[in-house]
Specification:
Layout (H helix, E strand, L loop, with lengths): L4 E5 L8 E9 L2 E7 L18 H5 L7 E7 L7 E8 L1 H10 L12 E5 L5 E7 L8 H16 L1
Antiparallel strand pairs: 1-7, 2-3, 2-4, 4-5, 6-7
């Protein structure tokens, strides 16, 4: 599932080297199943499009809760949390379908608000593009939905 994100960070005065992790729950713990590349010295990075193995990410359950966690990369490995949110694959796909134009308005339906460990607003992640390939039934559903939108 290719998926680029745009991050808008609030309250950071210095630059950051952000990266994100997608995590799934394993019992009581969230376990990272994907880590992005870091984007150096940028508070509003646009990460490259990436492909995810849906069986690893969500066991092909598009409603399985995932945690999107954004960190500031530190060379010593003690990365600093910027913020996190809970999403599922269907929400990521729907957010892109709503807009996905890279609009950084955190009130937009295509953005996910991040909170920090103190439950304070830490910015948002905007879905620029998201689609599923290699799942025949899902691809057919998406084509039908797209045709319906064109008719309106």
């Amino acid at each position: 599932m290719p998926l680029p994100f745009l991050l808008v960070v609030k309250g950071w005065l210095a630059t950051s080297d952000p990266f994100y992790e997608l995590c799934r729950q394993d019992g009581e713990e969230w376990v990272s199943v994907h880590r992005s590349e870091k984007v150096k010295n940028n508070l509003n990075p646009i990460w490259s499009e990436e492909k995810f193995d849906l069986s690893l990410l969500c066991d092909d359950d598009f409603d399985l809760p995932l945690r999107l966690v954004v960190y500031d990369h530190e060379g010593d490995g003690d990365h600093k949390l910027i913020g996190y949110c809970e999403v599922c694959v269907n929400e990521l796909l729907a957010a892109k379908a709503f807009g996905g134009g890279g609009d950084t308005d955190d009130n937009d339906a295509n953005s996910f608000l991040l909170t920090d460990d103190d439950d304070e607003d830490a910015g948002c992640v905007v879905v620029i593009n998201a689609h599923v390939t290699g799942v025949p039934d899902f691809e057919n559903d998406v084509e039908v939905d797209d045709e319906d939108e064109d008719e309106e």
